[in-house]
């Protein structure tokens, strides 16, 4: 395994570090700041969601276009997602910005909807409905309401639901490896 020299970044460094943190550190170490640790683990999940998603070719202006991760609202994860700035996914640099409805959903490849938007999250789902935007949130009912990926906690483990029908409707291709790990939303109850 190649470990980057100090000051260098490599594709997957953050994900590798988060996985090491989760699997190699004793629970007492992680318990020092459980909220920050939880946010870092979820950040690694989102990074891997991006790695295992394929967008339509016409989504990209050129081969060097960045993968734009947009956020809306506020919670612990929004701050943690800034760790992904300067990482790469599929050779594309990741950039982080606040979702600007004026620019439209095509300015984002991924939209994270924070917990503070729990009363209005469906409007973000509607705003991105006709664009290849991977929508992600921790808000209860997100995937069942037309969002694509919903993170949740089950027995002290972070898990995720995927609304595969919505992902396909938006032209997104999610890898089989990702789908094998997910709870899939029953298409009969999804909008």
Explain what you see.
With 191 residues, this protein is α/β, with parallel strands linked by helices. The protein has one domain. The chain is built from seven helices and ten strands. The strands form two sheets. An eight-stranded mixed beta sheet has the order 3-4-2-5-6-7-8-10, sandwiched between helices. A hairpin with a 2-residue loop joins β7 and β8 (157-162). α1 packs across α3. It is globular and about 45 Å long. 31% of the residues are buried. Mean pLDDT is 83; it is low at 1-31.
Number of strands: 10
| Helix-strand sequence | HHHEEHEEEHEEEHEHE
What form results from the Cα inertia axes? Answer: globular
Name the beta content range: 15-25%
Strand order of the largest sheet: 3-4-2-5-6-7-8-10
- The N- and C-terminal alpha carbons lie at a distance of 45 Å
- Helix proportion: 25-40%
Largest sheet: 8 strands, mixed
Oligomer: single chain
Unreliable segments (pLDDT under 50, ≥5 consecutive)? 1-31
* Structural class by secondary-structure content: alpha/beta
Q: What Rg is obtained from the alpha carbons, in whole angstroms?
A: 16 Å
Number of domains: 1
Q: Give the averaged pLDDT, no decimals.
A: 83
Figure out the total of helices.
7
């Amino acid at each position: 395994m190649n470990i980057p020299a100090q000051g260098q970044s490599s594709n997957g460094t953050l994900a590798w570090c988060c996985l090491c943190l989760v699997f190699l550190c004793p629970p007492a170490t992680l318990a020092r700041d459980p909220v920050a640790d939880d946010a870092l683990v979820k950040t690694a999940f989102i990074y891997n969601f991006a790695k295992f998603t394929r967008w339509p070719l016409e989504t990209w202006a050129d081969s060097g276009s960045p993968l734009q991760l947009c956020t809306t609202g506020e919670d612990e994860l929004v701050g943690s997602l800034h760790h992904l700035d300067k990482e790469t996914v599929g050779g594309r640099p990741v950039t982080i910005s606040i979702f600007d409805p004026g620019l439209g959903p095509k300015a984002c490849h991924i939209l994270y909807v924070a917990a503070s938007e729990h009363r209005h999250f469906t409007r973000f789902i509607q705003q991105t409905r006709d664009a290849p935007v991977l929508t992600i949130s921790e808000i209860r009912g997100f995937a069942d309401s037309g969002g694509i990926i919903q993170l949740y906690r089950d027995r002290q483990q972070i898990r995720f639901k995927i609304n595969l029908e919505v992902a396909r409707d938006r032209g997104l291709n999610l890898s089989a490896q990702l789908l094998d790990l997910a709870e899939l939303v029953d298409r009969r109850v999804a909008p």
